[in-house]
Each structure stands twice: as C-alpha cells, then as structure tokens.
TrEMBL record:
<keyword id="KW-0378">Hydrolase</keyword>
<keyword id="KW-0732">Signal</keyword>
<dbReference type="InterPro" id="IPR029058">
    <property type="entry name" value="AB_hydrolase_fold"/>
</dbReference>
<dbReference type="Pfam" id="PF03403">
    <property type="entry name" value="PAF-AH_p_II"/>
</dbReference>
<keyword id="KW-0442">Lipid degradation</keyword>
<feature type="signal peptide">
    <location>
        <begin position="1"/>
        <end position="32"/>
    </location>
</feature>
<dbReference type="GO" id="GO:0003847">
    <property type="term" value="F:1-alkyl-2-acetylglycerophosphocholine esterase activity"/>
</dbReference>
<protein>
    <submittedName>
        <fullName>Lipase (Putative secreted protein)</fullName>
    </submittedName>
</protein>
<keyword id="KW-0443">Lipid metabolism</keyword>
<dbReference type="GO" id="GO:0016042">
    <property type="term" value="P:lipid catabolic process"/>
</dbReference>
Length: 391
C-alpha cells in the first residue's frame, strides 16, 4: 500500500487503514477480496444505504456546493506539468430548501476508490449510496455584518475530503462556513470540471511527510485567500477574515500544524490523530488542539507530538479519547464497526466516537473563534471517554 515517509521510519498508517476499511466493506460471509466467494458475493443489502453520517445537531439547515481552484503560482509537486489544482466541498448555513440531498461521492469516484484499494465483491457504486444531510446548493442564510467564521478541513493521506463530511455538516449547522480540500493527486479519485478524475500520484512516490505537510499548508493558505477575497463567487455568504481555522485528520493534522506555524492568517488549528511532520521549529503562538487516540493519546508515545507540544507557546490542549482508533475521528468509524473490523484496541462505539469528535472540535472552535467561553474544558470534563494530558 502507498504510504508517506518520515526520515528514518514509516510515517502515517492512514493508507494502510484505508485499505483495511475498504476490505471491511465486503459483506459478511463474502470471503477475502479476490477469492471466489468475494467475486460471487451478492449486491450490498439495503442496510448499506442507511445514512453514513449522523444528522447534524445544530439548528441551521445545511447547504453544500463544490468548487475548483487553480493556483497558477505553483506547479504541482506530484505532476509538474500542471499547476496546482484543488477540489473543494463547501458547506454553509442555508435557507430552508427542498433542493435535492447532496451525494457522499459520485458513482465513478466510488468505483475508482474501491479499485485503488483492490476491493472486489461489492457494488462499484457502494460508497455513492451513503446518504448525507446537506442540500445541494440552496441559497445561503444571510451572514451577520461581521461575516461567518471559516473552517478549512484537510483529510488524511489517500483519504478523500468526503471522509470528514459528518464534522463538516455539524459545523455548518452551527453557523460556520466549512471548506474541505482534496489536495491534488493525494486521493484515489478527485473529479474536475473538465471531466478528468485524477488519482493518487503522490501515493506512488512515497514522499517525505514534511514535504506533504508543507505542500498542503500552501494549499490551505491559497484556499483561505481565495475564499476570503470573493466568497460569493463560490456561493458562500460573507466571511470574517479574522476567524479562519484549520482542522485536519492524520496527514491533514500535520498540515494544520504547518499552516498555523507558517501563516499568521490562521487563527487556530486542530490535529486529529496525525503524526506532526514539519520542516521547522518556530514557536506557534495561536490556539492549537491535539486530539488523539492510540499512540497519539498519551505523552511520550509519539515523539512528534512531544516536539509539537513544546513548540506551542499559545493556548494549547492535548486530549485523547479512550477506546478510539485512528479512523474514529472520520465517517469511516461506523463502517468498521458494522463489519467487526475496527480492531481489538477500538472499544469505543462509532456513534460515541463521532459525537465526542464533533463536540470537542465544535467546543474548541466556539471558544477560540467565537469567544463563547471555556467550552473545550467543559466538554472534555463532561465526556468520561476524554482524557486531558496537557494544558
């Protein structure tokens, strides 16, 4: 499986875990992918069409649009013949609408993701069957004069931006504008307006983690600048340039740290269980949240978190979630649970994992972008699964 390297040792296990996830999609009793049993497996039953993401708990209807940005100031590091291109999903508080429900991924994207991970014996459009709650492109709810806070989401390496849909819908239902970024050539299937669907060229190159994180940090800076300059051009309401945060999972968490470290335009950032790949050691004086599971859930287990913690000179929190796994912070936790492949170390149910993730991220952002008070510490104390390691 493709992976990302850090000097001297294998880095993120995200791509390997995605493979385990997608293998888990084979229906019970179907056998291993590639076997006769798997090839003869029946179509996924109706249970697979149930909602893959929980309903958002905020009071506001949610809309979603897609956008594609091209940064002509940079050649793509994984495909130097092209400028850097970024596909976005944009969630926002919307006016009530009867617009159709959005899609999780397209049927073509689903087929390419499954093929990339060599999954057989399931319908090619399986991932496209998962239901979400946002409506497709309804008019946005008018923003206050100050504008809405903006949250950028960066997924794990070899994971699509759709893997953070549940978190995105939750944030939008609570009054945030949200932009999830597919970083070019770092996911198995990224659709473009001209009909191209690009794959994971970076996966074949096994790049250094620090290079990927730096490339993504530049992506996030470009997205922030473009969205703030002309939000209406992509269908977003007015945005507040002083309240922009980054939340990332796995490699996206490393990118969030790097973006905050190198760019004063970001007000806060959060890393969801990602090894911290960075090319520098300059102190970070703005709010940062480390939220981890497994090896990232306790001090001393991952030296990159220890180093990052020492570099945080501003408000900081280090929390872990008992019984969570690496994918517990994404939409895929439920799929692993339903197939019994989450792993013995994952004892926290997917519903609770999703709830805790959303509550903690929302509390952190509410506290740091909206000045609502000490919400993160309160939320952490109220959840028995959450352990505070550092303040």
């Amino acid at each position: 499986m493709p992976n990302v390297r850090e000097a001297g040792r294998p880095a993120r296990r995200c791509a390997t875990l995605v493979a385990a996830l997608l293998l888990a999609l084979v229906p019970f009793g179907a056998g291993a992918p590639g076997t006769a049993a798997a090839r003869a497996a029946p179509a996924a039953d109706a249970a697979w069409t149930a909602s893959a993401v929980p309903a958002p708990t905020g009071a506001l209807p949610v809309g979603v649009r897609t956008a594609h940005l091209r940064d002509t100031s940079r050649r793509d590091p994984w495909n130097p013949d092209r400028y850097r291109e970024l596909a976005l999903s944009l969630w926002y508080p919307a006016l009530p609408s009867r617009a159709p429900r959005a899609s999780y991924v397209t049927a073509r994207e689903s087929a390419l993701i499954l093929r990339f991970h060599r999954v057989e014996g399931v319908p090619a459009d399986l991932l496209a069957r998962f239901r979400v709650h946002a409506r497709t492109a309804p008019p946005p709810l008018p923003a206050p004069a100050r504008g809405l806070p903006l949250v950028l989401l960066s997924p794990g390496f070899a994971l699509p931006r759709s893997s953070l849909t549940g978190l995105a819908e939750e944030l939008a239902s609570r009054g945030y504008a949200v932009a999830a970024v597919d970083h070019a050539y770092e996911a198995p299937a990224i659709s473009h307006p001209d009909g191209r669907v690009t794959g994971c060229l970076a996966c074949r190159r096994h790049p250094e983690g620090a290079r990927v994180a730096a490339t993504r940090a530049a992506d996030l800076r470009f997205v922030r600048e473009r969205l703030l300059r002309s939000p209406g051009a992509v269908g977003l309401p007015r945005l507040d340039p002083s309240r922009v945060a980054v939340v990332g999972h796995s490699m996206g968490g490393a990118a969030a740290f790097e973006a905050l470290r190198t760019d004063a335009g970001f007000a806060a950032a959060a890393n969801l269980d990602g090894t911290v790949h960075t090319g520098g050691r300059s102190p970070v004086d703005r709010p940062f949240l480390l939220l981890g599971a497994g090896e990232h859930g306790r001090p001393g287990a991952d030296p990159t978190w220890q180093r990052a913690w020492r570099d945080l000179s501003g408000p900081r929190r280090w929390l872990s979630v008992r019984g969570a796994g690496h994918l517990s912070f994404t939409d895929y936790a439920r799929l692993l649970e339903r197939t019994g492949t989450a792993g013995e170390e994952v004892t926290l149910g997917a519903a609770d994992a999703g709830r805790v993730t959303r509550e903690l991220v929302v509390a952190f952002l509410d506290e740091r972008l909206r000045r609502y008070g000490p919400r993160l510490d309160t939320a952490a104390r109220q959840d028995p699964e959450v352990v505070t390691h550092g303040r």
